[in-house]
Amino acid sequence: MTMQKTLVGQILLTAALALAPAVHAQDYPTKPIRVIVPYPPGGGVDFMARIVAEKLRDKWGQPAIVESRVGGGGNVGTEYVAKASPDGHTLLFVAPGPMVINKSLYGKLAFDPDTMVPVSLVATITNVLAVHPRLAAENVQQLIALAKANPGRLNYATQAIGSVAHLTGELFQSMAGINIVHIPYKGAAPAIADLLGGQVDMAFLELSVVLPHIRAGKLRGLAVGDERRNPSLPDIPAMSEVVPGLVFVTWYGVVAPPKTPSAIANKLSAAIAEALKQPDVAQQIRDRNAEVAGSTPEEMTLLMREERERYGKVIRATGMTAQ
Fold first, then answer.
1. How far apart are CA 187 and CA 199, in angstroms?
2. CA gap 52, 54 in Å, rounded
3. Each residue of 205-234: b (16+ CB within 10 Å) or e?
4. 201: domain range?
5. Strands 181-184 and 155-158
6. Is residue 5 assigned to a domain?
7. Which residue among 44, 126, 132, 241 is least crowded, i.e. fewest CB within 10 A of its CB?
8. Shortest CA distance to 137 belongs to which of 123, 154, 115?
9. Each residue of 167-206: pLDDT tens digit?
């Protein structure tokens, strides 16, 4: 009888442990949600985070507070979330850097991005290869021909070493068989200023940043980074039309601390998907020249795995390190 009671007790305990995450998710959230943004306030990531936070607050009646924790290429804020309680009340709103680039770029991190729990993509924004109008290249084919005729003479600006723009530039060189010089800046603003002034030849820039300058004739757009043409620049080809397989798109998304129960991640993902379907949210995202994304945790996991491998190969091939 004692053995039978013990066996029954073990079965009940196992069942209770299996149900615990689901029960916890059913009650979630039980307190304010903190959305950590590892970049300065006022940028695209911060803007998208506030949209999501507002809709989570409206849905669940709990405060959702956006907080910036800046530094280390996004590593400071990411480390903070990585060490937070895995109960879904501290989240990270992030761009690719800390999740798919920095592990290969930095010699040592105080967190492992592979252990973070993906929740949902929120938006994507295409990047544009833009050149100064004085450059004798009306399209990508002419640019490649010019670069091949003048190896090491052309250059491209980026906002930082190891940025998506830098890695895109390295991929472009490798896939097109050219040699152009990388000129890193401390932020996008000075890079754009020098491109507009003609101090540098080209740059891979987010659509929202470069679109006004292209429309004003101050810069020439040669290609967009999506797999297809962008409605905002319908006459500019996708880069993959000229260099097959070269896609350069920035994404924004939400991840949770390691060991966050999948039931909570799924509940959050469903709430974000619901918010992204609301017309006012979609319009705010489009107003930033971005596209609504949305995903399941599994879909976001797959994307990050693919991007981590793709960017990791570039970093290892070039010997690139963070400064």
1. 16
2. 5
3. bbbbbbbebbeeeebbbbbbbbeebbebbe
4. 126-241
5. parallel
6. no
7. 241
8. 154
9. 999 999 999 999 999 999 988 889 999 999 999 999 999 9
